[in-house]
Design goal:
Layout lengths: L1 E3 L3 E3 L2 E5 L5 E5 L5 E11 L2 H14 L6 E4 L17 E5 L3 H5 L7 E6 L4 E11 L4 E6 L12 E12 L6 E5 L2 E10 L5
Antiparallel strand pairs: 1-5, 2-5, 3-4, 5-13, 6-11, 7-10, 8-9, 8-11, 9-10, 11-13, 12-13
Length: 189
C-alpha cells in the first residue's frame, strides 16, 4: 500500500539586494512547483516487497522522474461521453481562466470506478457556459460512460525522489515499510 503526505509548494526566486534599502524579488519561473512531500509504502508479503524494491530500483534514485497524482477531485466531468471522445465537458471551476496557463495543471489522471487509471494531457480548454467548460485531451478516453464511471480526476505532478538512498525497514521476511521524499520538477511551457 502507498500513501502520499501533504505537499509543500516552492516559488523559485532570486532576491536582489543592492544594500540601498530596496530589495527586489525576481521569480525564476511564472509558476510555483511542488517542493517536497513524502510517500510511504508498506509491503505485507514477499511479492509486494519484491515489487517495491524493483520500483525503487527503476527510479534510480533522483535520476528518473515519475508522475504523482494529487488524489484530489481537481476536475469533475458533468456530461456523458463516448469511447472515442477527446473533448470532455467538466464543471466550470475556472480552469480555463486560472489553471490552464500553468504547465503543472495540464496533466491529469482519470481514476475509473473499476480501478483503472488513465493518464492524459490537456491540450486546450474553453468555457461553454456558466456551469461548464470543455477540455481537449491528447488521446480518446477509451470507454463510454457517465460521471458515475469516474471516481475522480486529479492533476499529475512530475516528481523525482529527493535522495539517491532509500532505507527499507524490514519487520520480518516479506514485510517492510519505507518512506521516500519526493521533489517536484519545474515544467515550464
Amino acid at each position: 500500500s502507498a500513501q502520499i503526505t501533504q505537499r509543500a509548494y516552492a516559488w523559485p526566486a532570486d532576491i536582489i539586494d543592492g544594500a540601498t534599502g530596496k530589495v527586489l524579488v525576481d521569480p525564476r519561473t511564472t509558476w510555483g512547483r511542488v517542493a517536497t512531500h513524502n510517500a510511504r509504502f508498506s509491503a505485507r508479503h514477499r511479492a509486494g516487497a519484491w515489487a517495491l524494491r524493483q520500483w525503487l530500483y527503476r527510479r534510480a534514485g533522483r535520476y528518473r522522474p515519475l508522475w504523482v497524482p494529487t488524489f484530489a477531485e481537481d476536475l469533475r466531468i458533468v456530461a456523458p461521453f463516448s469511447a472515442g471522445d477527446t473533448v470532455l465537458v467538466i464543471a466550470n471551476n475556472r480552469y480555463s481562466d486560472m489553471l490552464f496557463a500553468n504547465p503543472q495543471c495540464r496533466h491529469i489522471a482519470i481514476f475509473r470506478t473499476n480501478g483503472e487509471v488513465l493518464p492524459r494531457e490537456i491540450l486546450s480548454c474553453q468555457v461553454v457556459g456558466e456551469d461548464a467548460e470543455w477540455i481537449t485531451i491528447d488521446a480518446a478516453i477509451g470507454f463510454a460512460g457517465t460521471m458515475a464511471d469516474i471516481r475522480r480526476i486529479s492533476f499529475l505532478a512530475l516528481d523525482r525522489l529527493s535522495t539517491d538512498r532509500v532505507e527499507i525497514i524490514w519487520k520480518r521476511i516479506g514485510v517492510c515499510d519505507t518512506s521516500v521524499g519526493l521533489v517536484g520538477l519545474d515544467m515550464e511551457g
